[in-house]
Amino acid sequence: xxxxxxxxxxxxxxxxxxxxxxxxxxxxxxxxxxxxxxxxxxxxxxxxxxxxxxxxxxxxxxxxxxxxxxxxxxxxxxxxxxxxxxxxxxxxxxxxxxxxxxxxxxxxxxxxxxxxxxxxxxxxxxxxxxxxxxxxxx
Amino acid sequence: xxxxxxxxxxxxxxxxxxxxxxxxxxxxxxxxxxxxxxxxxxxxxxxxxxxxxxxxxxxxxxxxxxxxxxxxxxxxxxxxxxxxxxxxxxxxxxxxxxxxxxxxxxxxxxxxxxxxxxxxxxxxxxxxxxxxxxxxxx
DNA sequence: AATTTCTGTAACTAAAATAATTACATGTAT
DNA sequence: ATACATGTAATTATTTTAGTTACAGAAATT
Lengths: 138, 138
Description:
The structure is a homodimer.
Chain A: H1 5-18, H2 26-33, H3 37-49, E1 53-56, E2 59-64, H4 73-80, H5 98-124, H6 127-137
Chain A binds a DNA duplex through α3 and β2.
């Protein structure tokens, strides 16, 4: 199962976007997510590096650096997910075997297609869409 | 990253399908995959439960119970992957917060769409396709 | 029938990933 | 100066994954 960093990051960005007036501390956000403030700060660090938000050391609060309509879930996913490949492929299959020799490149192509399909869905949804759903669900 | 069980399972099934005459032991397959025979037997156990192959205790070799054209990668994936959900969502967000209260159901829908897109790709490719690619790559 | 060889499966170990936590240097505001 | 925040390193606990050992029992061979 993929880790929860995308889920928590969407939570963080939704909170910031829905309260543009308030400066929310990592501790406050952690209270909404129900985790440790350091977990939040690590994620905002990655989101800042990806250019999705701006923070100031020592100063409470974060600002989005793009409009919610411009932030896709794929951008968030890429910002906080270190792994390039979704599926693992076993290493060192036997090169003396016709299957072992070619299975990696074959699966590489297949898995890449599946991954791209997933990423296309993540790219089709923006933070604005998420906020709309959040508001509807209320 | 998703575990390598799908990759290894495709390897196993490709080997069996490409040598319908030979009875391959878990030890032989393990030699091609480059892992421990028990890892192979665990996977063939799951594949057998899913109705993709037949084995006999004490007797070497396994037989496919469907034609390679009928076995999709999604069937294999479902056979060896225990988790229902691809993405994790953080538990116990704060119900007193409008975002915390609704983030789970919102992300649940979003992640389900992404997962379905991935699974549709896995469903579109069969073991026969994989074997075709393996033969071409040689 | 005895032996060999295999599968199925439980139990254990090792390594890696994830999240939570502690600690602290440093920046900002009053 | 003090209070309070962020950024980040280091540590710990938990879970997942894969590899391994061990062995009961099925099948084939002699």
